[in-house]
Amino acid sequence: MIKPKKSLGQNFLINKDVIKKIVNIVEISNKDILEIGPGTGNLTSEILKRNPNKFFVVEKDNKLANILREKFSSNIEIINEDILKINENDLNNQILTVFGNLPYNISTEILIKWILNLNEKKIWFNYLVLMFQKEVANRIIANFNTRNYGRLTVLTNWRLKVKKVCDINPSCFKPKPKVESSLLLFEPKENFFDFITSRNLEKITRIFFMHRRKMIKKPYNQIFKDNTDIAHKLGIDLNLRPQNLEPNTYFKLTKEYEFLRG
Prior knowledge:
Blueprint: E1 12-13, H1 16-23, E2 32-36, H2 42-48, E3 55-58, H3 62-72, E4 77-79, E5 96-101, H4 107-116, E6 125-133, H5 134-140, H6 151-159, E7 160-168, E8 173-174, E9 181-188, H7 198-208, H8 217-224, H9 229-234, H10 247-261
Parallel strand pairs: 2-3, 2-5, 3-4, 5-6
Antiparallel strand pairs: 1-8, 6-9, 7-9
Helix pairs in contact: 1-2, 4-6, 6-10, 7-10
């Protein structure tokens, strides 16, 4: 019997109804599939019933990787690595449909890494069907002018369309997490702001949301060296707080920042 590792944020999904609901969200027959953190393979088994074309799984835990090899043999390709150390753009020649009961301790890190590394010429996925801690999911899908709105919201909104599928009770997992979970569906956006580098958007949002309850005048001046012309141009009131600015405003600020840097 496998004992879940807290250090890897392991909570295995065991509810069969929820598992079936997840695999029915998008069409996966004859598609290339990637599953992150398959654990003991409960979701993996259900995906295989839908006859995918290629099926990759990323499992960091050596013991679990060996169990998956014994259980599924040559039906899946197991990548026994840390997902944060993998270049997702090189995983497959074809577009992947991604499923993931993400380890909650690194779920935001995974999502941000994927967003910032998106290649404009070749998007490596068509859908992301991902499980998050409910609190994190609420931050991803938040509207501006709300308390949950923040850097994660803006970064996600830049390249992805996202919708909440459902909340999932702790009793659906083993061991039971102490928090509720939420299932989100992501799709790449066709139209988005084109930056010199996505790291500039990451920098702008990080500085602005560092002190999210304070007025934006200080982070604005830190970035633009007290030049208020850009604020006037974009119609930004510097007495507002970070959550009062729409995602598009942050995208425009990033473009202005890049222009000034040449």
